[in-house]
What we know:
alpha+beta; 6-stranded mixed β-sheet; 6-stranded antiparallel β-sheet; 11 helices; 39 strands; globular
Amino acid sequence: MRSWTSRDLLNVTDAFAPGNLTGSQKYYGTQAEADAAALKAAIDSFTDNDTDPGPTTAAIKSALSTGLLKEKDIDEAVGHILAIRVRLGEFDPGGGPYGGIDASVINSTAHRTLARRAATEATVLLRNDGTLPLRKSGSAAVVGPLSDTLYTDWYSGALPYAVTPKDGVAAELGAPVAGSEGVDRIALKDTATGRYVTAGNGDAGAALRETADSGAGTRFDVFDWGSGIVTLRSAANGKYVGYNGSGFVNDQAQPNGWFVQQQFALERQSDGTYLLRYAGYETGESWWTSPVYLGPARTDGTLGLVGKDKAAHYAKDVVRDGTAEAVAAVKGKDTAVVVVGSMPAINGREAHDRTDMALAPSQEALVRAVRAANPRTVVIVENSYPTTLGALQKEVPALLWTSHAGQETGHALADVLYGDANPAGRLTQTWYRSESDLPSILDYDIIKSDRTYQYFEGKPLYPFGYGLSYTSFRYGELKRVPDGYEVAVTNTGRRTGDEVVQLYVHQRTSRDQQPLKQLKAYSRVSLKPGETKTVRLALRTPDLAHWDVTRSKWVVETAAYDVMVRSSSADIRAWTSLKVRGEIIPPRDLSRTTRAENFDDYRGISLVDESKADGTAVRATAEGSWLKFADTLLEPGPDGFAARVAGAAGTVEVRLGSPTGTLAGTAHFEGTSSPYAYETVKAPLTAAVKGRRDVYLVLHGDLRLSTFSLR
């Protein structure tokens, strides 16, 4: 792990990861074995057992006493920790160069300015028919579920203050603006008892119960986040309802926590009633055995979890129609701004993926309703990931994207909406038109699945590197200079603006499948109207290297390269070619011991650990799994095949030309007691194994293959 850099690294585990080695993963039998292996693999500091160092200390001491670790192993880890602490000045008088930085810097004027700048520069203009920038003399309404709130993202700190999109527009116009979150306010009435689900009124909330009351405590704002998931915010105190392990309380400022225990689903029944299902992420864990439906009230009057057959059936009374309220707010205004998107803790966070890529259905319906009521509708998508957006991106005049960008989000958006800032953010991901453009989320092979801007051959909704401006730019000729390229860029519009100049390359010919294009350099340049600047982009010959699986090394091939400067990955502005004299990758020599992981193509194969210490092997995951080793020189013709295999019994076939091509030999394997206990199996090869051929290894059985050779 330390071989890739000469810098002194301090390597730290993820939280609870060491304990997972003996817990959920059951990779080692004892914590002493697990911690010793982690430390020897370059871990220096262990984050486990919350703030209690005792179990880790005991495990390391046990490993030391039993010979799993040597004192020098511990000294090395401690040395890396101390080196960082010394460099930070922790042991210097007064704390060293950083000792004088105290809490006063938090929320300082400089930091507020930086937060606003960061949020502004990250905003991406996706579509604009001339509606933007807006006139400051006009009226506006700001609506939508994210119009008047800011959510913190995963691992965020607490916001020192919050400027919402509605706040930002109001500040820009110097007057209050109309608004609505556009969400329904409902009451849930148990059809069997006629009593309402009721939350607490105080700031701390209270356990949900059923009461005869029909006041504010029975009203809940329903936020739809897609995939059938909603959150319920109590109108009584503005807090979200969540599960605390025994009941449901309206006491959370926003959905949060590892299991996000503020998630629900309103399941409509054939009789028009609804079941209220608890959908916290822990309900999907293997250890969850409790029921997931709410009601009826328990003996103490509060709501708990029951089986579906005993769940309360609720009538959903819409006390306030969110869409109608939003429509009323935007009518007659010069501009309607709709803010939709995601809640960062829901649908697309660590360990839980989205089931689709669209906006929540109710959010999409809200946009359409507002657009029908006010043609000058600007949509802001504030979310954590690419969204398909359906036809909305064609139906609305202007469309912006921002992340959950922190405390200055509202000011930043207003700066862009009203032209105080010229947008120049660029998409760092490809936005696809449909889920059908993508393979399974579990398919990590971007080459084989034609994924990302580098390999995708379809037409994306918005390409990688995309973003519009309120001005326009002209590119000159792309010229080669020492260690790179330069291009003159001119602002041909009427506004000062930034252009993000992007340099891509494509290798025309190669032994290996090459990206259609690959970003190698970029530069953000600010230009006044009519101004021209020469932008230099670094590109050296070593930057063209790719990994050669035949020899396990980086290689620059002799080839012609397309060098393109673009304003996005799909928008070429200037082009030239480059001829490089590098290496010619020779044919494979399988007479040498070859690692099975260094294949050219495969089917039904996964990469697995060769041993618990190091190494990578391949495992057959389906009958007839195969590995391809292309362009192999079989001269003189080998007459034998040898392979190191482990695991269950099976066979390894050597075939020529294709997975069903000429059978040259079959090695039989009786199996071993452990997937880490390797044996060498051998087989004779037929005389057909000669010449320059593609060699396929076809695997039968649940076995692992580490290395092989043809001799």
